[in-house]
Amino acid sequence: MKTVWRNLALFAVAAAGAAAIMDPAFAEEAAKAAVKAPDLVVNKADDGWMMTSSLLVLLMTVPGLALFYGGMVRTKNMLSMLTQVLMIQCIVCVLWFVYGYSLAFTEGSGFTSPFVGGFSRLFMQGIDPKAPAATFSVGVGLDELVYVCFQMTFAAITTALAIGGFAERMKFSAVVLFAILWLTIVYIPIAHSVWFNPGPNDLAVANDAATARSGYGFQMGALDFAGGTVVHINAGIAGMVGALLLGRRIGFGKEAMPPHSLTLTMVGASLLWVGWFGFNAGSALEANASAVLAMANTFVATAAAGVSWLLVEWLFKGKPSLLGLASGVVAGLVAVTPASGYAGPMGALVLGAVAGVVCFFMVTAVKSALGYDDTLDVFGVHAIGGFLGAIGTGIVANPLYGGAGITDYAKCVVKDGIVTSDCPIAAYDMWGQVFIQFKNAMITVCWSAIGSLIVYLIVAAIVGLRVSAETEREGLDIAEHGERAYNM
Amino acid sequence: MKMVMAIIKPFKLDEVRQALDEAGIEGMTVSEVKGYGRQKGHKEVYRGAEYEVSFVPKLKIEAVVPTESVAKVIEAISTAGKTGQIGDGKIFVTPVEQSVRIRTGETDADAL
Fold first, then answer.
1. Residue of A nearest to B52 (CA)
2. What CATH number corresponds to the domain at position A313?
3. In a designed cystine with A73, which of A77, A415, A435, B4 is the match (CB 3.0 to 4.6 A)?
4. Would residue A30 count as lying in a domain?
5. Domain range holding B11?
6. CA of B40 to nearest chain A CA: how many angstroms apart?
7. What is the C-alpha to C-alpha distance for residues A376 and A261, in angstroms, rounded to an integer?
8. Do A363 and B47 touch (CB under 8 A)?
9. Mean of the per-residue pLDDT values of chain A
10. What CATH code is carried by the domain that includes residue B92?
11. How many other C-beta atoms are found inside a 10 Å radius of the C-beta of residue A185?
């Protein structure tokens, strides 16, 4: 009997071997194993563009977002808004260089590796100009410190966006502690999950192995060009959880709480739009056609959303308002963010136009029906716009609708045993991709909701979340900062 | 002596001042005020949040004039301050007992 089993086993091995030799896919894999990736070469134009992009994203936060938000709060809370945004930018910047970048954008180990990186760049150790960071093209590198700076500005604006949900009522000490904890517990894991991968060189040479070392969302095949999930859903949900946990502002729904300066809000929204070119086109990580496409999309989707919000507002509320137009512009920017490098310009136009209408109904009809006090509509604009954009990316990325599709690094052309940057576009399964997009968005919603809740509870236990009723009435500027925004 | 107090639309100030000047009135006090009458307020909408603004910005003009000038002054203000739209404002006249010019100590009509 034993010999029979042994013969059978031998036969099976032989059959499998024969099948493998005849199977072209297996042969291709075997051939691939022999090919090598080219050295990463840094291009001065790419470095220059990424340095510029990092500054553009900084411009979005300070003063862009600070003024956009500041203009919408009441005079007595103007400085609290400006101080909080600038302070978050500073805190996140420090933490990012110390440990944030390392945890988000290096390879992790063990079972946590799909969500957290390792310590190889802790305190910026191991950064070597001779070993550049990867981009999206085989053989193209980027000086790693500019990638650190660029990603830092993303972490900072995401954290700053979230505070719009609980503006005008949170303690400054609570905001500071929130920024530290939220960056660490919520932002870093989502950024690692969606964006971290070993780079096109590794993906082209050994696709499966390299994919397995990537973040969870990346492994799943989720598309998020510049942060629909990582930035906007993440911040929007965090802001909403904060708004619900802190409760409404005193007098909400009874007293008039009009924006104190729509002039500054318009200035802020415009700076956001300008800075967003660093955010979206910069996310191509190279000064190439992908960046140009993202730039075009960031123009057209934003404009379409501004127009669509204004038109529905005019139709349903009777008057075309500046705040509506500015909100539409921001909603369009949010929605096109995940799609910016994948959509074609007409896909982006439609995506923007839809976002303007959907976000308008969220902040007018749905918000007043549910009665929550999300002060600056970070949920209605960023979470909803980001969700719409994340799902919509699955549709507009379709090459059939003029989208750019997904690069298939596993099939890059090999020349003389070295992989080239000539990589084809993969066959596109639209509804399959939409489902992946949905899954990735839902993971972000859940992670952000639960993670943010934990962060708020820790903050509440240590310093408390909300200012006293007296402070809230007097305004945070005088009570918390001892200054007044306008001495006239 | 009478005190003529008029509430007018802010953008009518220059016309009213000129008309009073032509009517021989030598001085006045103007303050920015808010209030409502038949015009009521107006509605402001910010991202769907609607606020009733019940107090509309107006200007209040106060001028103390000799009793015999009162009719002329009322005529000047009503003509210059009129747009025909709701919210043009109102004029009130009250008696004044005394007046003193601080610099010279002149009193009553001499002090106007």
1. A256
2. 1.10.3430.10
3. A77
4. no
5. 2-111
6. 16
7. 14
8. yes
9. 93
10. 3.30.70.120
11. 16
Task: State how many domains chain A has.
Answer: 1
State the pLDDT at residue A10.
Answer: 47
Residue of A nearest to B50 (CA): A256
Domain enclosing residue A467, as ranges: 41-481
* Confidence check: pLDDT of A262 > 70: yes
DSSP assignment of chain B equals -EEEEEEE-GGGHHHHHHHHHHTT----EEEEEEE-STT--EEEEETTEEEEE--EEEEEEEEEE-GGGHHHHHHHHHHHT--SSTT-EEEEEEE----B-TTT--BGGGG-
CB contact (8 A) between residue B51 and residue A256: yes
Number of alpha carbons in the 13 Å side-chain half-sphere of residue A301: 39
Candidate from A256, A319, A364 with C-beta closest to B47: A364
Mean pLDDT of A102-114: 95
Report whether pLDDT(A221) > 90: yes
CB within 8 Å: A257 and B49: yes
Q: Look at A7-16, A185-194, A461-470, B64-73 and tell me which has the smallest mean pLDDT.
A: A7-16
Q: List, in sequence order, every residue forming a beta bridge with B2; answer none if it has no partner.
A: B65, B95
Structural domain contains residue A250? yes
> Coil, strand or helix: which one is A41?
strand
Residue in A68, A78, A59 with CA at minimum distance from that of residue A266: A68
Q: Enter the pTM of the model.
A: 0.88
- Which positions in chain B touch A319 (Cβ < 8 Å)? 45
Q: Is residue A6 part of a domain?
A: no
**Residue A17 covered by a domain:** no
How many Å separate Cα A247 from the centre of its chain?
Answer: 27
Point out the residue among B44, B48, B53 whose CB comes nearest to the CB of A367: B48
Quick check: A29 pLDDT over 60? no
Q: Which residues of B touch A (CB under 8 A)?
A: 44-49, 51-53
Neighbours of A400 (CB within 10 A): 9
* pLDDT tens digits, A430-474: 999 999 999 999 999 999 999 999 999 999 999 999 999 999 999
Q: Chain A interface residues facing chain B, Cβ-Cβ under 8 Å? A: 256-259, 317, 319, 321, 323-324, 327, 363-365, 367-368, 377
pLDDT at A25: 53
For residue A15, pLDDT beyond 90: no
- Express as a percent the part of chain A with pLDDT over 90: 91
